[in-house]
Amino acid sequence: MKHFLVIFEPDGKSVFIHAKATLLEAAGQAGIILNSACGGKGICKKCQVILEPDGRQVLACQYHVQSNLTVTIPDSSRFFEQKILTTGIETKAKFEPDIYKKYQKGNSAKRILGVAVDIGTTTVVAKLVDMVTGRCIATQAALNPQARYGDDVISRITYAQTEEKLAELQKAIIDCINELIAKLCSEADIAAKQIYEMCIVGNTTMNHIFLALPITQLGLAPYKAYSLSAHNLPPKKLGLQINPEGNIHTVENIAGFVGSDTTAVVLAVDMDSAEEMTLAVDIGTNGEIVLGTKDKLYAASCAAGPAFEGAGITYGSRAVDGAIEAVILNDEDIDVDVIGNCSPRSICGSGLIDAVAVMLDLGIIDKTGRFVDPNTLAHIKSEKTLQKIVKQGGQPAFVLAETKGEKIFLTQKDIREVQLAKAAIRAGIKILQKQVELTDSDIERILLAGAFGNYIRPVNALKIGLLPAVPVERIRFVGNAALAGARMLLLSSQARDKARQLARKIQYIEIANRKEFQNVFAESMTF
Ligand code: FES
Fold this sequence. Notes:
Blueprint: E1 3-9, E2 13-18, H1 23-29, E3 48-52, E4 56-59, E5 69-72, H2 79-85, H3 101-104, E6 113-119, E7 123-130, E8 136-143, H4 153-159, H5 163-188, E9 195-202, H6 204-211, E10 231-233, H7 235-238, E11 247-250, H8 260-268, E12 278-282, E13 286-292, E14 297-303, E15 323-329, E16 334-338, E17 346-347, H9 349-362, H10 383-386, E18 389-392, E19 395-403, E20 406-411, H11 412-436, E21 445-449, H12 450-455, H13 458-463, E22 475-479, H14 481-491, H15 493-505, E23 507-508, H16 517-523
The protein binds FE2/S2 (inorganic) cluster (FES).
Protein backbone atom coordinates (compact mmCIF):
# COMPACT_ATOMS: atom_id res chain seq x y z
CA MET A 1 0.00 0.00 0.00
CA LYS A 2 1.16 3.53 -0.76
CA HIS A 3 2.59 5.53 2.18
CA PHE A 4 2.97 9.26 2.66
CA LEU A 5 5.10 11.43 4.91
CA VAL A 6 3.15 13.66 7.30
CA ILE A 7 5.06 16.31 9.26
CA PHE A 8 3.39 17.83 12.31
CA GLU A 9 4.26 21.39 13.29
CA PRO A 10 5.30 23.01 15.55
CA ASP A 11 6.46 19.68 17.08
CA GLY A 12 8.49 18.75 13.98
CA LYS A 13 7.39 15.13 14.47
CA SER A 14 6.81 13.06 11.34
CA VAL A 15 5.31 9.74 10.41
CA PHE A 16 4.99 7.54 7.31
CA ILE A 17 1.39 6.49 7.07
CA HIS A 18 -0.69 4.44 4.64
CA ALA A 19 -3.01 6.15 2.19
CA LYS A 20 -6.22 5.14 3.99
CA ALA A 21 -5.22 6.63 7.33
CA THR A 22 -6.80 9.76 8.77
CA LEU A 23 -4.76 12.62 10.17
CA LEU A 24 -6.09 11.64 13.62
CA GLU A 25 -4.42 8.22 13.27
CA ALA A 26 -1.28 9.78 11.80
CA ALA A 27 -0.97 12.19 14.75
CA GLY A 28 -1.48 9.28 17.19
CA GLN A 29 1.31 7.33 15.52
CA ALA A 30 3.58 10.37 15.75
CA GLY A 31 2.87 10.41 19.50
CA ILE A 32 0.60 13.46 19.41
CA ILE A 33 -2.79 12.96 21.03
CA LEU A 34 -5.57 15.10 19.60
CA ASN A 35 -8.90 15.88 21.21
CA SER A 36 -11.42 13.41 19.84
CA ALA A 37 -14.44 13.63 22.10
CA CYS A 38 -16.73 12.00 19.51
CA GLY A 39 -14.25 9.17 18.85
CA GLY A 40 -13.50 10.33 15.28
CA LYS A 41 -17.07 10.61 14.01
CA GLY A 42 -16.73 14.17 12.75
CA ILE A 43 -19.30 15.48 15.23
CA CYS A 44 -17.40 17.16 18.09
CA LYS A 45 -15.16 19.36 15.84
CA LYS A 46 -12.43 19.25 18.49
CA CYS A 47 -9.73 17.76 16.27
CA GLN A 48 -9.23 20.73 13.92
CA VAL A 49 -5.81 21.00 12.29
CA ILE A 50 -4.35 23.31 9.66
CA LEU A 51 -3.05 22.09 6.30
CA GLU A 52 0.07 23.97 5.21
CA PRO A 53 0.95 26.02 3.24
CA ASP A 54 -2.57 27.23 2.35
CA GLY A 55 -3.85 27.36 5.96
CA ARG A 56 -6.98 25.32 5.27
CA GLN A 57 -8.66 24.02 8.45
CA VAL A 58 -9.82 20.40 8.40
CA LEU A 59 -11.03 17.86 10.94
CA ALA A 60 -8.15 15.43 11.52
CA CYS A 61 -10.56 12.52 11.98
CA GLN A 62 -12.21 13.11 8.60
CA TYR A 63 -9.19 13.95 6.47
CA HIS A 64 -7.58 10.97 4.72
CA VAL A 65 -3.93 11.29 3.83
CA GLN A 66 -3.50 11.27 0.04
CA SER A 67 -0.13 13.00 -0.39
CA ASN A 68 2.90 14.12 1.61
CA LEU A 69 1.70 16.79 4.01
CA THR A 70 2.73 19.39 6.56
CA VAL A 71 0.10 19.95 9.22
CA THR A 72 0.01 22.50 12.05
CA ILE A 73 -1.74 21.42 15.24
CA PRO A 74 -3.22 24.28 17.28
CA ASP A 75 -2.92 23.95 21.08
CA SER A 76 -6.70 23.93 21.34
CA SER A 77 -6.81 20.59 19.49
CA ARG A 78 -4.27 18.88 21.72
CA PHE A 79 -5.48 16.56 24.40
CA PHE A 80 -2.76 16.69 27.01
CA GLU A 81 -1.19 20.08 26.32
CA GLN A 82 -4.52 21.59 27.03
CA LYS A 83 -5.20 19.33 29.93
CA ILE A 84 -1.99 19.84 31.84
CA LEU A 85 -1.15 23.45 31.27
CA THR A 86 -4.61 24.89 31.68
CA THR A 87 -7.79 23.65 33.24
CA GLY A 88 -9.01 22.67 29.77
CA ILE A 89 -12.33 21.11 29.01
CA GLU A 90 -11.12 17.60 29.68
CA THR A 91 -10.48 17.94 33.38
CA LYS A 92 -11.83 19.82 36.33
CA ALA A 93 -8.57 19.40 38.19
CA LYS A 94 -6.42 22.51 38.16
CA PHE A 95 -3.04 22.28 39.75
CA GLU A 96 -0.97 25.43 40.16
CA PRO A 97 2.78 24.89 39.87
CA ASP A 98 4.19 25.76 43.31
CA ILE A 99 6.97 23.24 44.06
CA TYR A 100 9.48 25.55 42.33
CA LYS A 101 8.98 28.20 45.03
CA LYS A 102 11.07 26.30 47.57
CA TYR A 103 14.04 26.57 45.19
CA GLN A 104 13.59 30.29 44.49
CA LYS A 105 14.67 31.50 47.91
CA GLY A 106 18.20 32.84 47.74
CA ASN A 107 18.64 31.25 44.33
CA SER A 108 19.99 33.28 41.44
CA ALA A 109 19.45 30.49 38.89
CA LYS A 110 17.49 31.78 35.92
CA ARG A 111 15.53 28.64 35.36
CA ILE A 112 14.29 26.00 37.75
CA LEU A 113 13.83 22.73 35.91
CA GLY A 114 12.46 19.34 36.84
CA VAL A 115 12.26 15.85 35.35
CA ALA A 116 9.24 13.54 35.37
CA VAL A 117 10.01 9.85 34.87
CA ASP A 118 7.78 6.87 34.12
CA ILE A 119 9.69 3.65 34.84
CA GLY A 120 7.96 0.94 32.83
CA THR A 121 8.90 -2.72 33.00
CA THR A 122 10.01 -2.44 29.38
CA THR A 123 10.67 1.25 28.70
CA VAL A 124 11.68 4.28 30.73
CA VAL A 125 10.50 7.72 29.60
CA ALA A 126 11.75 11.04 31.03
CA LYS A 127 10.48 14.57 30.41
CA LEU A 128 12.38 17.77 31.17
CA VAL A 129 9.93 20.37 32.42
CA ASP A 130 10.12 24.07 33.28
CA MET A 131 8.96 24.04 36.92
CA VAL A 132 7.49 27.56 36.72
CA THR A 133 5.51 27.43 33.48
CA GLY A 134 4.95 23.66 33.42
CA ARG A 135 6.09 23.51 29.79
CA CYS A 136 7.77 20.37 28.57
CA ILE A 137 11.19 21.17 27.13
CA ALA A 138 12.47 17.77 26.00
CA THR A 139 11.60 14.08 26.17
CA GLN A 140 13.90 11.05 26.11
CA ALA A 141 13.20 7.33 26.34
CA ALA A 142 15.24 4.16 26.75
CA LEU A 143 14.65 0.46 27.18
CA ASN A 144 14.67 -0.53 30.85
CA PRO A 145 18.11 -2.18 31.25
CA GLN A 146 16.64 -4.48 33.91
CA ALA A 147 15.14 -6.40 30.96
CA ARG A 148 18.35 -8.44 30.89
CA TYR A 149 17.28 -9.88 34.27
CA GLY A 150 13.86 -10.91 32.90
CA ASP A 151 11.01 -9.56 30.80
CA ASP A 152 8.37 -9.26 33.49
CA VAL A 153 8.12 -8.12 37.10
CA ILE A 154 8.03 -11.66 38.47
CA SER A 155 11.42 -12.53 36.97
CA ARG A 156 12.89 -9.30 38.43
CA ILE A 157 11.45 -10.16 41.85
CA THR A 158 12.83 -13.68 41.56
CA TYR A 159 16.26 -12.29 40.67
CA ALA A 160 16.44 -9.70 43.43
CA GLN A 161 16.21 -12.09 46.37
CA THR A 162 19.38 -10.86 48.05
CA GLU A 163 20.45 -7.33 48.97
CA GLU A 164 23.33 -7.47 46.47
CA LYS A 165 21.08 -8.50 43.61
CA LEU A 166 18.48 -5.88 44.51
CA ALA A 167 21.28 -3.29 44.57
CA GLU A 168 22.38 -4.52 41.13
CA LEU A 169 18.87 -3.96 39.71
CA GLN A 170 18.66 -0.58 41.43
CA LYS A 171 21.98 0.48 39.92
CA ALA A 172 20.78 -0.55 36.45
CA ILE A 173 17.75 1.76 36.63
CA ILE A 174 19.65 4.64 38.28
CA ASP A 175 22.34 4.46 35.55
CA CYS A 176 19.62 4.44 32.91
CA ILE A 177 17.90 7.52 34.41
CA ASN A 178 21.25 9.33 34.69
CA GLU A 179 21.83 8.67 30.99
CA LEU A 180 18.37 10.03 30.19
CA ILE A 181 19.12 13.14 32.29
CA ALA A 182 22.39 13.66 30.38
CA LYS A 183 20.54 13.37 27.05
CA LEU A 184 17.80 15.77 28.19
CA CYS A 185 20.48 18.28 29.25
CA SER A 186 22.28 18.08 25.94
CA GLU A 187 19.04 18.26 23.94
CA ALA A 188 17.92 21.37 25.85
CA ASP A 189 21.43 22.78 26.22
CA ILE A 190 21.18 23.14 30.00
CA ALA A 191 23.34 22.07 32.95
CA ALA A 192 22.22 19.17 35.17
CA LYS A 193 22.49 21.45 38.21
CA GLN A 194 19.52 23.43 36.85
CA ILE A 195 17.38 20.34 37.55
CA TYR A 196 16.10 20.59 41.14
CA GLU A 197 13.16 18.24 41.38
CA MET A 198 12.33 14.81 39.98
CA CYS A 199 9.07 12.91 40.17
CA ILE A 200 9.15 9.15 39.56
CA VAL A 201 6.22 6.85 38.83
CA GLY A 202 6.15 3.15 37.97
CA ASN A 203 4.52 -0.11 38.92
CA THR A 204 5.08 -1.22 42.52
CA THR A 205 7.99 -3.51 41.63
CA MET A 206 9.75 -0.76 39.63
CA ASN A 207 9.07 1.69 42.48
CA HIS A 208 10.52 -0.70 45.08
CA ILE A 209 13.61 -1.52 43.01
CA PHE A 210 14.22 2.20 42.37
CA LEU A 211 14.14 2.80 46.14
CA ALA A 212 15.89 -0.52 46.95
CA LEU A 213 12.97 -1.54 49.17
CA PRO A 214 12.49 -5.26 49.90
CA ILE A 215 10.55 -6.95 47.08
CA THR A 216 10.46 -10.66 47.97
CA GLN A 217 6.96 -10.31 49.44
CA LEU A 218 5.69 -8.87 46.13
CA GLY A 219 6.16 -12.29 44.55
CA LEU A 220 4.29 -14.23 47.28
CA ALA A 221 0.56 -14.29 48.06
CA PRO A 222 -0.95 -11.96 49.26
CA TYR A 223 1.52 -9.86 47.18
CA LYS A 224 1.91 -7.03 49.68
CA ALA A 225 3.88 -3.88 48.93
CA TYR A 226 6.60 -3.05 51.45
CA SER A 227 5.61 0.61 51.15
CA LEU A 228 2.58 2.30 49.63
CA SER A 229 3.77 5.77 50.66
CA ALA A 230 5.33 8.60 48.71
CA HIS A 231 9.02 9.16 49.43
CA ASN A 232 11.20 12.26 49.21
CA LEU A 233 14.94 11.71 49.06
CA PRO A 234 18.04 13.78 48.34
CA PRO A 235 19.49 13.01 44.88
CA LYS A 236 22.79 11.89 46.41
CA LYS A 237 21.12 9.09 48.36
CA LEU A 238 20.05 7.50 45.07
CA GLY A 239 23.05 8.58 43.01
CA LEU A 240 20.99 10.73 40.67
CA GLN A 241 22.98 13.43 38.93
CA ILE A 242 20.93 16.59 39.33
CA ASN A 243 21.40 19.61 41.62
CA PRO A 244 22.53 18.12 44.99
CA GLU A 245 20.17 20.49 46.83
CA GLY A 246 17.22 19.03 44.91
CA ASN A 247 14.63 16.40 45.79
CA ILE A 248 13.47 13.09 44.34
CA HIS A 249 9.75 12.46 44.84
CA THR A 250 8.18 9.04 44.36
CA VAL A 251 4.40 8.71 44.28
CA GLU A 252 2.02 6.55 46.36
CA ASN A 253 1.39 2.97 45.18
CA ILE A 254 -2.12 1.53 45.37
CA ALA A 255 -1.26 -2.14 46.03
CA GLY A 256 1.33 -4.83 45.35
CA PHE A 257 0.44 -5.03 41.68
CA VAL A 258 -1.07 -1.60 41.09
CA GLY A 259 1.60 1.03 41.42
CA SER A 260 2.20 4.75 41.39
CA ASP A 261 1.91 4.79 37.57
CA THR A 262 -1.79 3.96 37.99
CA THR A 263 -2.15 6.65 40.67
CA ALA A 264 -0.69 9.07 38.10
CA VAL A 265 -3.04 7.87 35.33
CA VAL A 266 -6.11 8.36 37.54
CA LEU A 267 -4.88 11.83 38.47
CA ALA A 268 -4.11 12.80 34.84
CA VAL A 269 -7.45 11.72 33.44
CA ASP A 270 -9.23 13.13 36.50
CA MET A 271 -11.27 10.00 37.17
CA ASP A 272 -11.74 11.30 40.66
CA SER A 273 -14.22 13.90 39.39
CA ALA A 274 -15.80 11.74 36.69
CA GLU A 275 -19.59 11.86 36.63
CA GLU A 276 -19.65 9.20 33.89
CA MET A 277 -18.87 5.57 34.64
CA THR A 278 -15.29 5.37 33.39
CA LEU A 279 -12.96 2.47 32.69
CA ALA A 280 -9.26 3.28 32.32
CA VAL A 281 -7.13 0.48 30.87
CA ASP A 282 -3.37 0.41 30.49
CA ILE A 283 -2.57 -2.66 28.42
CA GLY A 284 0.88 -4.05 29.03
CA THR A 285 2.57 -7.23 30.18
CA ASN A 286 0.80 -6.35 33.38
CA GLY A 287 -2.49 -4.68 32.50
CA GLU A 288 -3.83 -2.18 35.03
CA ILE A 289 -7.50 -1.33 35.09
CA VAL A 290 -9.46 1.22 37.08
CA LEU A 291 -13.25 1.41 37.03
CA GLY A 292 -15.62 3.85 38.69
CA THR A 293 -16.77 7.42 39.09
CA LYS A 294 -16.00 10.23 41.51
CA ASP A 295 -17.95 8.32 44.16
CA LYS A 296 -16.01 5.05 44.12
CA LEU A 297 -12.99 3.74 42.25
CA TYR A 298 -11.80 0.13 41.96
CA ALA A 299 -8.47 -1.05 40.56
CA ALA A 300 -7.09 -4.40 39.52
CA SER A 301 -4.09 -5.80 37.78
CA CYS A 302 -4.17 -8.59 35.24
CA ALA A 303 -1.27 -10.69 34.11
CA ALA A 304 -1.80 -10.47 30.36
CA GLY A 305 1.68 -11.81 29.69
CA PRO A 306 3.90 -10.52 26.95
CA ALA A 307 1.94 -11.77 23.87
CA PHE A 308 0.99 -8.21 22.89
CA GLU A 309 4.69 -7.39 23.05
CA GLY A 310 5.33 -10.25 20.65
CA ALA A 311 6.61 -12.94 23.05
CA GLY A 312 5.33 -16.46 22.40
CA ILE A 313 4.04 -15.49 18.92
CA THR A 314 5.91 -17.16 16.01
CA TYR A 315 6.63 -13.86 14.25
CA GLY A 316 5.83 -11.61 17.20
CA SER A 317 7.89 -8.56 18.12
CA ARG A 318 7.62 -5.25 19.92
CA ALA A 319 6.61 -2.21 17.87
CA VAL A 320 9.95 -1.98 16.03
CA ASP A 321 10.88 -1.19 12.42
CA GLY A 322 9.64 -3.93 10.14
CA ALA A 323 6.75 -4.94 12.43
CA ILE A 324 3.29 -5.21 10.90
CA GLU A 325 1.26 -2.78 13.00
CA ALA A 326 -2.01 -2.78 11.06
CA VAL A 327 -3.87 -5.32 8.97
CA ILE A 328 -6.64 -3.91 6.81
CA LEU A 329 -9.25 -5.73 4.78
CA ASN A 330 -9.67 -4.30 1.28
CA ASP A 331 -11.98 -5.23 -1.59
CA GLU A 332 -9.67 -7.87 -3.03
CA ASP A 333 -7.41 -9.05 -0.22
CA ILE A 334 -5.65 -7.72 2.88
CA ASP A 335 -3.15 -4.87 3.21
CA VAL A 336 -0.57 -4.56 5.94
CA ASP A 337 0.97 -1.42 7.39
CA VAL A 338 4.58 -1.80 8.48
CA ILE A 339 6.47 0.37 11.00
CA GLY A 340 9.38 2.26 9.43
CA ASN A 341 7.98 1.91 5.92
CA CYS A 342 10.21 -1.13 5.27
CA SER A 343 9.65 -4.78 4.37
CA PRO A 344 7.61 -6.73 6.93
CA ARG A 345 9.65 -8.91 9.26
CA SER A 346 7.36 -9.44 12.26
CA ILE A 347 4.02 -8.52 13.80
CA CYS A 348 3.50 -6.35 16.89
CA GLY A 349 0.55 -6.12 19.30
CA SER A 350 -1.71 -3.77 17.34
CA GLY A 351 -1.09 -5.83 14.19
CA LEU A 352 -2.00 -8.98 16.11
CA ILE A 353 -5.34 -7.54 17.20
CA ASP A 354 -6.08 -6.37 13.65
CA ALA A 355 -5.04 -9.69 12.13
CA VAL A 356 -7.30 -11.67 14.47
CA ALA A 357 -10.19 -9.27 13.77
CA VAL A 358 -9.69 -9.65 10.01
CA MET A 359 -9.53 -13.46 10.32
CA LEU A 360 -12.80 -13.37 12.28
CA ASP A 361 -14.36 -11.08 9.66
CA LEU A 362 -13.36 -13.44 6.89
CA GLY A 363 -14.56 -16.48 8.86
CA ILE A 364 -11.08 -18.06 8.74
CA ILE A 365 -11.28 -18.61 12.50
CA ASP A 366 -14.48 -19.07 14.48
CA LYS A 367 -15.57 -17.54 17.79
CA THR A 368 -13.63 -20.17 19.72
CA GLY A 369 -10.44 -19.16 17.90
CA ARG A 370 -10.26 -22.39 15.89
CA PHE A 371 -9.23 -22.34 12.23
CA VAL A 372 -12.25 -23.60 10.27
CA ASP A 373 -12.04 -26.19 7.50
CA PRO A 374 -10.82 -24.25 4.41
CA ASN A 375 -13.40 -26.17 2.34
CA THR A 376 -16.14 -24.23 4.15
CA LEU A 377 -14.79 -20.85 3.00
CA ALA A 378 -16.59 -20.69 -0.35
CA HIS A 379 -17.83 -17.18 0.62
CA ILE A 380 -14.27 -15.86 0.23
CA LYS A 381 -14.08 -14.96 -3.44
CA SER A 382 -10.47 -13.73 -3.46
CA GLU A 383 -8.08 -16.42 -4.65
CA LYS A 384 -5.22 -14.36 -3.15
CA THR A 385 -6.77 -14.51 0.31
CA LEU A 386 -7.57 -18.23 0.07
CA GLN A 387 -3.95 -18.95 -0.84
CA LYS A 388 -2.90 -17.31 2.43
CA ILE A 389 -4.46 -20.16 4.42
CA VAL A 390 -1.64 -22.69 4.67
CA LYS A 391 -0.17 -25.36 6.96
CA GLN A 392 2.94 -24.61 8.97
CA GLY A 393 4.53 -27.32 11.10
CA GLY A 394 1.34 -29.35 10.96
CA GLN A 395 -0.84 -26.45 12.14
CA PRO A 396 -3.19 -24.27 10.11
CA ALA A 397 -1.80 -20.76 9.60
CA PHE A 398 -2.69 -17.50 7.87
CA VAL A 399 -0.01 -15.65 5.91
CA LEU A 400 -0.04 -11.90 6.46
CA ALA A 401 2.89 -10.97 4.24
CA GLU A 402 5.76 -12.44 2.31
CA THR A 403 9.20 -10.87 1.92
CA LYS A 404 11.85 -12.40 -0.31
CA GLY A 405 10.23 -15.81 0.00
CA GLU A 406 9.87 -15.61 3.80
CA LYS A 407 6.29 -15.76 4.98
CA ILE A 408 5.07 -13.85 8.05
CA PHE A 409 2.12 -15.82 9.42
CA LEU A 410 -0.06 -16.53 12.42
CA THR A 411 -0.56 -20.14 13.46
CA GLN A 412 -3.32 -21.76 15.47
CA LYS A 413 -1.00 -21.65 18.50
CA ASP A 414 -0.41 -17.91 17.98
CA ILE A 415 -4.17 -17.32 17.99
CA ARG A 416 -4.38 -19.23 21.30
CA GLU A 417 -1.68 -16.97 22.81
CA VAL A 418 -3.65 -13.87 21.76
CA GLN A 419 -6.77 -15.41 23.32
CA LEU A 420 -4.96 -16.01 26.64
CA ALA A 421 -3.67 -12.43 26.78
CA LYS A 422 -6.96 -10.83 25.85
CA ALA A 423 -8.89 -13.12 28.22
CA ALA A 424 -6.66 -12.04 31.14
CA ILE A 425 -7.50 -8.37 30.53
CA ARG A 426 -11.16 -8.94 29.72
CA ALA A 427 -11.62 -11.20 32.78
CA GLY A 428 -10.07 -8.51 35.00
CA ILE A 429 -12.50 -5.94 33.61
CA LYS A 430 -15.47 -8.32 34.01
CA ILE A 431 -14.64 -8.98 37.65
CA LEU A 432 -14.49 -5.25 38.36
CA GLN A 433 -17.80 -4.87 36.50
CA LYS A 434 -19.32 -7.54 38.75
CA GLN A 435 -18.01 -5.69 41.78
CA VAL A 436 -19.86 -2.55 40.69
CA GLU A 437 -22.76 -4.53 39.16
CA LEU A 438 -22.35 -3.03 35.73
CA THR A 439 -23.24 -4.33 32.30
CA ASP A 440 -21.02 -3.42 29.35
CA SER A 441 -23.40 -0.73 28.16
CA ASP A 442 -23.31 0.95 31.60
CA ILE A 443 -19.70 1.92 30.92
CA GLU A 444 -19.86 5.45 29.53
CA ARG A 445 -16.16 6.00 28.72
CA ILE A 446 -13.21 3.73 28.10
CA LEU A 447 -9.84 5.48 28.33
CA LEU A 448 -6.94 3.61 26.75
CA ALA A 449 -3.65 4.63 28.31
CA GLY A 450 -0.06 3.70 27.57
CA ALA A 451 1.95 3.35 24.42
CA PHE A 452 0.25 0.17 23.26
CA GLY A 453 -3.27 1.48 23.81
CA ASN A 454 -2.43 4.41 21.60
CA TYR A 455 -1.83 2.23 18.56
CA ILE A 456 -4.65 -0.26 18.66
CA ARG A 457 -7.75 0.25 16.55
CA PRO A 458 -10.75 0.41 18.90
CA VAL A 459 -13.11 -1.26 16.44
CA ASN A 460 -10.86 -4.31 16.30
CA ALA A 461 -10.22 -4.34 20.06
CA LEU A 462 -14.01 -4.52 20.41
CA LYS A 463 -14.32 -7.18 17.73
CA ILE A 464 -11.92 -9.58 19.46
CA GLY A 465 -13.58 -8.90 22.83
CA LEU A 466 -10.55 -7.30 24.49
CA LEU A 467 -12.81 -4.49 25.75
CA PRO A 468 -16.43 -4.43 26.95
CA ALA A 469 -18.97 -4.16 24.14
CA VAL A 470 -19.62 -0.41 24.08
CA PRO A 471 -20.26 1.90 21.10
CA VAL A 472 -16.84 2.71 19.60
CA GLU A 473 -17.21 6.46 20.19
CA ARG A 474 -17.01 5.83 23.94
CA ILE A 475 -13.38 4.73 23.54
CA ARG A 476 -10.71 7.41 23.86
CA PHE A 477 -6.92 7.36 23.73
CA VAL A 478 -5.19 9.23 26.52
CA GLY A 479 -1.57 8.56 25.52
CA ASN A 480 1.08 8.18 28.19
CA ALA A 481 -1.23 9.30 30.98
CA ALA A 482 1.18 7.98 33.65
CA LEU A 483 3.84 10.41 32.47
CA ALA A 484 1.28 13.20 32.16
CA GLY A 485 0.32 12.55 35.79
CA ALA A 486 3.99 12.43 36.81
CA ARG A 487 4.43 15.89 35.29
CA MET A 488 1.51 17.26 37.34
CA LEU A 489 3.02 15.68 40.46
CA LEU A 490 6.42 17.13 39.63
CA LEU A 491 5.01 20.64 39.59
CA SER A 492 2.29 20.92 42.16
CA SER A 493 1.82 20.23 45.87
CA GLN A 494 -1.96 20.22 45.32
CA ALA A 495 -1.50 17.36 42.86
CA ARG A 496 0.60 15.52 45.47
CA ASP A 497 -2.15 15.95 48.07
CA LYS A 498 -4.66 14.66 45.58
CA ALA A 499 -2.50 11.61 44.74
CA ARG A 500 -2.26 10.78 48.44
CA GLN A 501 -6.05 10.86 48.77
CA LEU A 502 -6.54 8.89 45.54
CA ALA A 503 -4.19 6.09 46.54
CA ARG A 504 -6.22 5.67 49.75
CA LYS A 505 -9.57 5.97 48.01
CA ILE A 506 -9.02 3.49 45.16
CA GLN A 507 -10.06 0.06 46.33
CA TYR A 508 -7.81 -2.70 45.09
CA ILE A 509 -9.47 -5.96 44.01
CA GLU A 510 -7.29 -9.09 43.86
CA ILE A 511 -8.94 -10.77 40.90
CA ALA A 512 -6.95 -14.00 40.76
CA ASN A 513 -8.25 -14.89 44.26
CA ARG A 514 -11.88 -14.59 43.24
CA LYS A 515 -13.65 -17.93 43.13
CA GLU A 516 -15.33 -16.97 39.86
CA PHE A 517 -11.99 -16.08 38.21
CA GLN A 518 -11.44 -19.37 36.36
CA ASN A 519 -14.95 -19.36 34.89
CA VAL A 520 -14.80 -15.70 33.89
CA PHE A 521 -11.37 -16.25 32.36
CA ALA A 522 -12.60 -19.28 30.37
CA GLU A 523 -15.65 -17.43 29.05
CA SER A 524 -13.41 -14.46 28.12
CA MET A 525 -11.35 -16.70 25.82
CA THR A 526 -13.97 -16.63 23.07
CA PHE A 527 -14.12 -13.84 20.53
S1 FES B 1 -14.78 15.75 15.08
FE1 FES B 1 -12.92 14.75 14.87
S2 FES B 1 -12.84 13.63 16.68
FE2 FES B 1 -14.70 14.61 16.85
